């Protein structure tokens, strides 16, 4: 079900399960997909965030009963992602060691070619609560294209320019979400605009169509709107959809300019 659409029809939010909504999208029509799927970490444990001990539980959407159920779910949405991608399209998937190996295995089973494993290093990670192993300070992002032998789009020169005119590496040191990105509300797994802006700039061109099947607070769509891309987001949670809509409505011309400057400072240049 269409939840919200901008007047220019370039920012679209659908409410529902991505497994049900993605089949309604046209085959071979999408330039890029960014997905931040559930990590399935809501196990009633504890963590430290902002100096406070908190539950790791994110919500029912982060809970599945069996490994087989998780595998089937992951296979289904990735298979549908491949169907809707253009032949030269690419997909980016964020994860941790809890799910990244399964994601990589299924991508290869479906015929994708993995291009990079980006390491997103967080400069100020939360401390390890148990003190029994190293502090988790990074997430990984798989970048893959639809076919092994069909070239994909990569803005190599811009990525080099963003990296002080040196070839860009697969380790990105970017800050976590800033307070100014949460002015309209909070999402438990929100990604920073700087991270999504770099991904979008690297692998799409202006007016390309981007899909996020786990849209959350629509950071992918907000970054896309700032950078003149078209966006289709899918989200089931009413609260997150309302937050996404508020974030988009807040994108006045003045706010776009301001956000662009802040993102520029995070990733060097836009």
Account of the protein in words:
With 270 residues, this protein is of the alpha/beta class. It has a single domain, classed as Vaccinia Virus protein VP39 (Rossmann fold). The protein is built from 8 helices and 11 strands. The protein has helices at 18-21, 67-84, 100-110, 156-162, 193-203, 219-226, 238-249, 253-267; strands spanning 2-5, 11-15, 30-35, 46-49, 52-55, 85-95, 113-121, 138-145, 171-173, 209-212, 230-235. The protein has a 9-stranded mixed sheet with strand order 1-2-11-10-3-6-8-7-9, sandwiched between helices. It has a two-stranded antiparallel ribbon with strand order 4-5. β10, α6 (219-226) and β11 form a beta-alpha-beta unit. α2 (67-84) packs across α3, α5 packs across α6 and α5 (193-203) packs across α8. It is globular and about 45 Å long. The two termini are 34 Å apart. The model has no long low-confidence stretch (mean pLDDT 90).
